[in-house]
Design brief:
- The protein is about 80% helix and about 0% strand.
- By secondary structure, it is mainly alpha-helical.
- The chain starts with 6 loop residues before the first helix and ends with a helix.
């Protein structure tokens, strides 16, 4: 495969791992709350990020690049935005179905394109812009599924989560490209380790100060939390590889396949069927993803 297209399998792997992680975290919200479930992906994911970095350094023989001030600013943006996005997503999932909230959050690619253009100067072709618009329109149709109570609040939470995920993608891509030296794999993994370390410190300090029961609850529920942490670190590793190779908007548009994965998970767990509106939304999303891939190829 052309190395410039490695972002495609990396993104697909990230979407699969993230779908599994979201399902695991959603279950944890019932026992340790939204904030407690938010921090497990960071606290339990950090050791795996360090392991990934050690493996990459050993395999490549490269030395991890040392960050500078620009890296620190981009990392802070990505880390804090991702914490907020995760909390908003889990809050929305407590009020609406797993698949529907996943679909609402996927209005993110359009926001990624805007933030990437404004902050990083990423340029997108006309075909890529059309792909983003089609895929986002499909997601909007999916988000209108009348799956029960909840009203407009979970929809707004999901859209806000998408915006924060867009900011996080922009920040992390900026951090990866601000590192001086090293292969794309080393720079991506280095950014992952620093990012999860910062996020762990921020949330641990917050929970110690304001919500110790949630922190203790996550420690007691270490088995599912460990799984969520591993899946989160694995997903982020592949996301960051994608960010190191192409514009964040391209990665997050292809990541719309996560909507299809979430639909399959929701159907398997809750025996939910798809409405005509959902089918139309899925078709638009798939067409948008296909157009993006064609434009990149």
């Amino acid at each position: 495969m052309d190395p410039s297209l490695l972002w495609i399998p990396a993104t697909l792997a990230a979407a699969a791992a993230q779908t599994a992680r979201n399902a695991t975290q959603r279950g944890l919200t019932e026992t340790i709350g939204t904030v407690g479930a938010t921090q497990v992906r960071f606290l339990y994911g950090f050791p795996f990020a360090l392991l990934f970095l050690a493996l990459v350094v050993a395999a490549t023989g490269e030395r991890a690049p040392w960050p500078d001030g620009s890296f620190a600013l981009f990392l802070l943006l990505g880390a804090t935005a991702q914490i907020g996005a995760t909390g908003l997503m889990l809050a929305a999932m407590r009020e609406r179905s797993f698949a529907t909230v996943t679909a609402i959050i996927k209005t993110e690619p359009l926001q990624v394109a805007v933030f990437g253009f404004l902050v990083l100067g990423d340029r997108l072709s006309g075909s890529a812009v059309l792909a983003i618009l089609l895929a986002t329109a499909g997601v909007i149709l999916l988000s209108g599924r009348p799956d029960g109570a909840g009203g407009v609040r979970p929809i707004l939470l999901g859209i806000a989560a998408g915006a924060f995920f867009a900011l996080a993608a922009t920040g992390f891509r900026g951090a990866i490209h601000s590192l001086d030296g090293g292969s794309f794999l080393l720079r991506a993994t280095t950014t992952l380790a620093w990012g999860l370390g910062l996020q762990t410190a921020i949330l641990a300090a917050w929970l110690l100060a304001f919500d110790r029961p949630a922190l203790l609850g996550s420690l007691r529920a270490w088995r599912p939390s460990l799984l969520a942490g591993f899946l989160g670190a694995l997903a982020s590793q592949f996301w960051f590889i994608g960010f190191s190779l192409t514009a964040a908007a391209n990665v997050r548009t292809l990541a719309l396949v996560e909507v299809l994965m979430a639909q399959a998970v929701a159907r398997r767990l809750f025996a939910q069927s798809s409405s005509r509106r959902e089918i139309a939304g899925l078709v638009l999303a798939v067409v948008g993803v296909g157009l993006l891939l064609a434009a990149q190829a």
